[in-house]
Structures are given as structure tokens and as C-alpha cells.
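hey m, so remember when u said the C-alpha cells were messed up on ur end? i reran from scratch. heres the input so u can diff it against urs
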Amino acid sequence: MTPIKLNLTKLKGRVVAIDGPAGSGKSTTARLLASRLGYSYLDTGAMYRALTYFALRNAISPSDGEKLKVIAKKVPIEFETHEDVNRVFINGEDVTQEIRSQEVTSHVSEVSAHYDVRREMVAKQRRMGRKGSIVAEGRDTTTVVFADADIKIYLDASVRERAQRRLLDMARLGVSTTLEEQEAEIQRRDRLDSTRENSPLTKARDAFVVDTTSLTIEGQVEHIISLIREVFK
């Protein structure tokens, strides 16, 4: 597939926000889209994962909202891109691999559900996006963090397809699991993310919905670029 040519002058300073449930392809698609646009990439989900990893390593319970709020406010979380890989640092330590563990995955929804934690993290994310020319992705990016984004995308896919993608991710990390376990985990996280009191996962009314079930990653990126070209032609 020949990459679509872009008018980067019209796109300068824009904010592209991408939402969607776990396993819908947000992270990879957003990272590649940012690269094609010459934008910065903000993975809000990785920030919550980094916070969860730090809490677990320091024996802080995912249910302890007060202690988690302090961490969220005081401990720096940063991103650096090396050879097209978005690396995540918390308190100066590279935790890119560690935050994708099954243990972190099992607890991140609970950690991110605390109101004060989300308030602190959203403030950080908005500061990161203040300069524009950014692709931001996460579960409340289009509805809360960047509710005034220039264009909003909601990615979705079937539970089976999302579970298969997670299975591949776990295999690359050397984690042994099954498709059935990942389907159950996806469904559990969907319930938690869509029913939580603070910033639940919802589709923004002005978001473009993209079903990624039968799309390749490159196909997802090209489809979104087509939408962007149409909006900013």
C-alpha cells in the first residue's frame, strides 16, 4: 500500500486523540500515526501502567487511593522515542518492558479508577499536550483529557480479535497464557473501564469510529490518515 501524502502545513499544531478499549490497537496505531505526521506520541495508558508498576514494586495497594495520589503527583513519568520505540521512564528508570507484565495488566484498571489519581495524571497529560502536534491515546483521551482535540478517533474490535492480539503481546514478553484467559481478562477490563465512576470509557459523540477487527496496523493508520485529510482538506 502506497502511503498517503500529507499536507503537513495544515496539520501543524493539531491534537489527534485516540480512544478505545484494551487490545483495539490504540498504542501501535497512535505511535505509527505520530511518526507519519511528524508528531509527538503520548501514551496515556502507559502512564497509568507505570504508576501501577511503581506502586506494586513499593508494596502500595492498588486500592489505596491516597498513597497513589501522592505518587501520581510527585513521581515524574517521561517518554523518549528510540528507533521508533516509545520508551517509558518513571523516576528516571526505564520501565518499558515491566509495565506490560500480566501483574500490572491485572491491576491497572483499579489504579486508574481513583478520582484523585486521574486528576493528577490528566493534569500531567494536558501539560504534555499543550504545544500541540501530538497524537494522544488512552481510554478517556477524547472525552476528558483532550475533549477539545482537533480530531477524535475511537478504535474498536471484537473481543476475540483483541484477545488474540494480547496473546501475541504476552508471547513476545515471554509470558505463558491462553486465548481463553485473555478473552476473560479483556471482558473483565471492559466491565471495569466502562462502569467506573471516574472517567469511564465512552465514545465521544464527535469521534470517528474505526472497527479494526479486520484491519492490519498499516491499514488502520492509512484509514485514520484518510479521515484526517478529509477533515483538514
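this time it looks ok to me. The chain has one domain: 13-228. if urs says something different then somethings off w ur setup not the seq
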